[in-house]
Amino acid sequence: MAAPAMEGAAATALRSVLSRVQQAAERSSRPADRIRVVAVSKTKPVSLIRQVYDVGHRCFGENYVQEIVEKAPQLPADIEWHFIGHLQSNKVKPLLANVPNLDMVESLDDEKIANHLDRVVANLGRKPLKVLVQVNTSGEESKSGVEPSGCLELAKHVKLNCPNLIFSGLMTIGMLDYSSTPENFQTLSNCRAEVCKELGIPEEQCELSMGMSADFEQAIEMGSTNVRIGSTIFGAREYPKKG
Ligand SMILES: *Cc1c(COP(=O)(O)O)cnc(C)c1O
Question: Where are residues bearing N6-(pyridoxal phosphate)lysine located in the sequence (predicted)?
Fold first, then answer.
């Protein structure tokens, strides 16, 4: 698509990201259309999300329930929302009830939350929800993400005991400061190999969500199928991260 003369900065930045994704995909001999770009819009206004939507992008990510619940109803229903933040059990119902076009929860790291999601999806009568198991690949003390040694157990639980959830792969942030290293990506990739082997899932059907603004090209070269990109598209976030 040709860039209109008055295109906004976020739309221009998205185009540049998409072409960098394409080049990284080519370097790793993979089709670029198999790599999903989640435009992470946390802290950013609906008007800016709309600008990126208007040039054709449909996948957006948020990590605070209160924020996605406020923004989603103001935006078109064909957006595929990804929830990428820490999820507490008392927020599961508001999230699912208010965001009917929630496509995926990328940050599942607890069996109880999985059971809760499963039940609420059933109660609301919505279609099954895709989930990724979040893995803490940096070994840093952190509340988010299961240890690499625990990802098989949680993936198995979802696959065997949560009929309203679709186990779709693994996600990692890497370090707590939102950076990550090749070792983190390699760890996630090793986790996938183990989970797929044990659960009998082809690796191509198990996503790897890894890579953010600073490192998405390297993540793609190491097998990422889903990159989560915030500041490079929307500009630096203006107020500090909560929590
Ligand atoms: C904020 C956030 C991102 C995006 O980070 P950028 O460095 O701005 O691209 C990606 N993943 C998660 C889980 C986030 O919370």
Answer: 42
Q: Would you kindly state where each structural domain of the chain is located, as residue ranges?
A: 35-234
pTM here is: 0.94
| pLDDT tens by residue, 33-56 | 999 999 999 999 999 999 999 999
Choice from 83, 84, 107, 132 to test ligand 1 binding pocket (greatest atom count within 8 A of CB): 84
Residue of 228, 231, 238 to mutate, ligand 1, most atoms within 8 A of C-beta:
228
Q: How far apart are CA 22 and CA 179, in angstroms?
A: 22
Strands 226-229 and 80-83: unpaired
Question: Could you say which of 3.30.420.40, 3.90.1170.40, 3.20.20.10, 3.90.550.10 is the CATH number of the domain covering 35-234?
Answer: 3.20.20.10
**Cα 87 to ligand 1 centroid, rounded to whole Å:** 15
